[in-house]
Design a protein that fits this description.
The chain is built from 13 helices and ten strands. The protein has one domain: TIM Barrel. Helix 8 packs parallel to helix 9, helix 9 packs parallel to helix 10 and helix 10 runs parallel beside helix 11. The chain is α/β, with parallel strands linked by helices and 397 residues long. The protein is globular and about 65 Å long. The strands form two sheets. An eight-stranded parallel sheet has the order 1-10-7-6-5-4-3-2. Strands 8-9 form a two-stranded antiparallel sheet.
Length: 397
């Protein structure tokens, strides 16, 4: 398996990596943990670190090449709500990386002792960073109702919610202020990990996940650009932006009371260079925590837009890890199945069948496929088998 530094350099070989599944929901469903706190999957980092390691190991044994750290909801504000100071927050966030590295070490030793084929796999650690909305109560990664200065208005039970600024001079000014505020939020978290070089060296990828707003996509790009320019920061890790489409629709409205933005708008925000500040492109772009039944059309629209924007000059990675098909209600913090979701082999086969025609268009360099909420080791084991069948059925050049 190639290292994160070498991934993406050979433009003639399609590469496939398997990501793990829903870490937090696996803690709940498989290990029967109550993690209903502002820290969510980060809660056991301090309370039960052995459980974090075992959860990572469950996905590694299922066949994952990439494991996401239990830091999705980590931010200084969420730690403060749970009674932790800033120094403890930094320590716990860095500890999450070390626990993932310990799981990787144990798994590699297991495979070496058994002589299994998996010793040839390189195990990658991806730093999981949720959107600003994941720090709010109720969580807003599926709606994007952010309070000022991050958005026009926070979530309100009266139903008078909006996530878009007015299309006026004042609205555009406020949107720029929101991008600046979101940039500061993401940069502050990134600095936690770059300040500890030993921890930074353990990280292979950075995953910005479940992003519901194009202004946050732009803010993430700015934060990465600022991080790269800061003294003492080594070469940036490969990083991706995962966006979310609950019910098959991007959460952000074009203007207040207007139509929703689309996957092509997301691709433009992630890869275009409009605006006053030139910012780096993400290494990968994709979709996470979205119901599988909507992926086919969304991936095709995103692929067409990426091909048009980059015109073959670059080939980013596609990163796609849907949920199991359940719907999440942020107000009650519960999942409902609606129609019975596909599980195990059925879920994995469906995902791979949707990825095959997308990858044949040669817009993407490779693909990271995995699962998000409510997908567990059984789904990832099935996905690993399907994805490694002749590299998703795509012939290598």
């Amino acid at each position: 398996m190639e290292t994160s530094e070498s991934i993406g350099k050979d433009a003639h070989v399609l590469q496939v990596l398997v990501l793990d599944g829903g870490f937090g929901t696996t803690l709940e469903d498989m290990f029967h943990q109550n993690i209903s706190t502002p820290l969510w999957s980060a809660k056991p980092i301090e309370d039960n670190p052995a459980l974090i390691i075992e959860t990572h190991l469950a996905f590694l044994r299922a066949g994952a090449d990439v494991i996401l750290t239990s830091t999705y909801q980590c931010a200084f504000s969420t730690f403060e709500r749970c009674g932790y100071g800033k120094d403890d927050a930094k320590r716990i966030m860095c500890k999450a990386i070390k626990l993932a590295a310990e799981a990787r070490r144990r798994f590699v030793n297991e495979q070496a002792d058994s002589g299994a084929w998996a010793t040839a796999r390189r195990i990658n650690i991806a730093l999981s960073l949720g959107p600003f909305g994941a720090t709010l109560s109720p969580a807003q990664e599926f709606d994007g109702f952010y309070p000022p200065p991050y958005g026009p208005r926070g979530y309100s039970e009266d139903g008078k919610n909006c996530n878009a600024f007015q299309d006026t001079q004042e609205g555009r000014r406020l949107e720029e202020e929101a991008i600046d505020a979101l940039t500061a939020f993401h940069l502050e978290r990134l600095r936690v990990f770059t300040e500890d070089r030993d921890v930074w060296d353990l990280i292979d990828f950075i995953a910005f996940e479940t992003v519901p707003l194009t202004r946050e996509v732009k803010a993430i790009r700015r934060a990465v650009g600022m991080l790269q320019n800061e003294t003492g920061v080594a070469e940036m890790k490969p990083w991706w932006i995962g966006t979310v489409y609950p019910g098959g629709r991007f959460p952000e409205e074009r203007t207040q009371g207007g139509e929703r933005l689309r996957a092509c708008d997301v691709a433009e925000a992630a890869l275009g260079q409009k605006g006053r500040i030139q910012t780096p492109h993400p290494w990968g772009l994709g979709i996470n925590c979205t119901e599988p039944k909507y992926l086919g059309g969304l991936l095709q629209e995103m692929t067409s837009a990426v091909g048009h924007i980059l015109n073959g000059k670059q080939k980013p990675w596609l990163v796609v890890y849907p949920n199991r098909g359940d719907a999440y209600d942020p107000a009650t913090q519960t999942w409902s199945t609606g129609e019975p979701p596909a599980v195990g082999e059925g879920w994995a086969r469906r995902l791979c069948e949707m990825a095959q025609p997308i990858l044949k268009q040669e817009v993407w360099h490779g693909v990271i496929v995995g699962g998000c909420c409510k997908t567990g080791p059984a789904e990832i084991a099935a996905l690993a088998r399907e994805a490694r069948k002749e590299h998703l059925g795509i012939d290598e050049a």
